[in-house]
Known about the structure:
By secondary structure, this protein is an all-alpha fold. It is 76% helix and 0% strand. It has 3 helices and no strands.
Amino acid sequence: MSLSIPSGKQIGFMALQGFGMFFTITGMAGISLILGPLNLIVKFEFTTMFGNVIYDFLFCIFLCVIGGAISFVSDAFIKDLSK
Length: 83
């Protein structure tokens, strides 16, 4: 059994994939704060970022989409480099 050490490019794309996951998780947490379930669990007062629930929800959806795209593309590059 051989253990392959990732190259610098692979490590960079792994960091980029983690950044995409951060965006995705941040967007999901924002959606749960805006729509209410997380507010009931955490029990603290939440003020909207843009002053409107719809704009905040759309911004969090945008974060989820961008994070998913970054994660997907970086995963594709990691798989391509590991061949």
